[in-house]
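Contributing: when you submit paired examples, paste them exactly as shown. First protein:
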Amino acid sequence: MKPHSSRNRETWPRHVTLGRVSVAVYRRRTPAGRWAFMVANYANGKRRFDSYATETEALEAAGRLARQLSQRDVLAASMTNEQASDYAAAVQALEPFAVPLPAAASTLAECLKLVGNLPTLHAAAQFYVSHHRRIERKPVTEVVQELMAVKEKRGASSRYLQDLRFRLTRFAEAFRKNTGDVTTAEVQAWLDSQRLAPQSYANFRRVVHLLFEFAVARNYAADNPVGGVENVRVNGGDVEIFTPVEIARLLAAAAPEFRPCLAIGAFAGLRSAEIERLEWDDIDLAGGHIVVGASKAKTASRRVVPIADNLTAWLVPYTGREGRVWTGSHEDYYQAQQETAAATAVEPDPANGVRGQRPVAWKANALRHSYASYRFAQTGDAGRVAGELGNSAAMVHKHYRELVKPADAARWFAVRPEAPVNVTALPAAADA
């Protein structure tokens, strides 16, 4: 069936009719004196006028529109009760937004062309809302400072604050931008570039995740980009240790102020946090022991650790020192570890018969793990080693039994300075 149009050229508006559908065509004179032709279009539920340059174009457009609307009438007339119920539900759902059903359906169809399916469309809408709400733009550095202030006010321990400050300062130095602009890909790339051991990677990821949770709660970021960053599995049963050759290279490369810390960790098994709090008065070379006071120990219980003969050789040059063994900050201590490991690299020099050597890779907690492993192999006494470490015999058995052989232990505790270690005399360090 073809649309029928009224052809009386003196009668306006004209009407193109098909069945029960009638589309009006209007003629208007423009300011320039020309005629313009407009089709009244109700396809989306509200009237709009579509303009055309000629009467013929307007009538053809009106015919197409009449066919479209007539087809809708046919479909509406043939709807089942269920379809009619769906239609009514759709109209009701759109009523609060004052959006006609045809317009909503047309827009939905266009969106589905872009994203493919309804779940993806919903996710895209959620992403749009979260990223276009009004976020307070605050640099990462400022958010770090605010977080530290809140943690300090809430009574966090000094050790926890030191660790938090160290990791977040390092992160903030790499991200000199607003917190809300940091992406998952950027955080992932940064963590990958640090070449961290699994445990260190996990620690950094945890702390940065905390930072962005803090930022989201205060509207400095729309979401937490760390949520999508790769999780690295840390196997608590895997213990990394240094070999005797590796510890000898590390001690030879260490700066004088860091060397005693390195030796104490390797040959007395103190935790790095305990070494940072250790004072020279706690070290009794004549008596052959180190006292780890309750205020310095992780377990808040005092213990006495024997000083091996080779550790004595490393510490003798520092006789007479006072105050803290490590006078730098926690950040400086971590940096000293990395710098010492990097300094073990040897450039090849074929002319002088020197073979190149890759740097010793720093392994998280490996000094303490090494001492426990070699000491257990040396003594065969889990209880004794546990007392020196400040943990349980069961823990020693679980992690260090048969990890190394007695011959390896002999080589470990034979690592001494190849020549007398000369340490420039320094004024007594202030107790910091």
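Second protein:
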Amino acid sequence: MTAYKKALYFMKKTFLASSLLIAALSSNAQVMDFEKYDPPSTLVVAEHKITKAKFPFIDVHNHQSGLGSSNVDGLVKDMDKLNMAVMVNLSGSNGNALKQAVDNTKANAPKRFIIFANINFSGVGQDGWTDKAVKQLEDDVKNGANGLKIFKSLGFSVKDNTGKRVTVDDVRLDPIWRKCGELKIPVLIHTADPKSFWDPMDERNERWLELKTHAGRKRSDTDPAPFETLIQEQHNIFKKHPNTTFIAAHFGWYPNDLVRLGKLLDERKNVVVEFGAVIAELGRQPKAAKAFFTKYQDRILFGKDSWIPEEYSTYFRVLETEDEYFPYHKKYHAFWKMYGIGLPDDILKKVYYKNALRIVPNIDKSLFPG
């Protein structure tokens, strides 16, 4: 090898080594996962961080275990801090467990709790199962239940006595929906999950981070069925049982498509919605959301889903203020910023309590202003 070639070879090796070192140093300086990258905005705008609702409100979507025996004093104090007048506990179970929850809350916090019953789907398809389920529901209502909550397990994991998936619109369940109409109790029903959970888990999926950090939430057309199939099953019972009031949980999983949700409400007068766990979808489309709340102001209920008191402020801020560009409280759930809808008082009152007073029986009206 000539001296020239040796010099050239040495220069190339030196350049490559330097490039690799620079790249490594640069890479090390930039190592950061998406969850940690959360720079505070430099935007200077008005902020109204609300920790207490403007009006007393009814949370129609909450879950509390142990209400049959626990001391509820601390829970009530936390509710008071939020201005939550009534909590609807959707995890009421059935039978003795439900009765104990009703009795305990009535004795220790009268007027503050409403309990919904749940169906025990074990044994669907066995002789007499449907009659037994209807009879249990009747007993639960006599014992103080004021509604029925259907979890997403129906459609997802509930199987009949032959091992077949029980669809949401299974005819064996029709007597249950019909009985709810006769008893004049609403059915708050959660079917499916966000559509993105069925989409490919790639760079185009808005819920990628949530699916990455909560792997069990990923779905497919065979696990257990396509999203549209599950939603259609739900809509089938809405149509088949017009005399029963259904509360579609999570805005029916159309909070990101309010036009489609509006069409459902136009077609099915027996359906209302609540926005538990989807306030971030509404907060990123404030103009469309405000128009929707205005048009369907008699069909929307306040719902939160999980009992984490400090998270309610996000809901109050979206509903009550016109703040701009503020964060959701769980980045993996919504990495975008939100804006306040700024609802007027007459609509706020309907969303906070008036609509629920009309739809959920036996809530004490004396807890609320006119």
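If you have annotations for the second protein, write them as plain sentences, like these:
The domain at 57-312+344-365 is CATH 3.20.20.140 (TIM Barrel).
The first strand starts at residue 57 and ends at 62.
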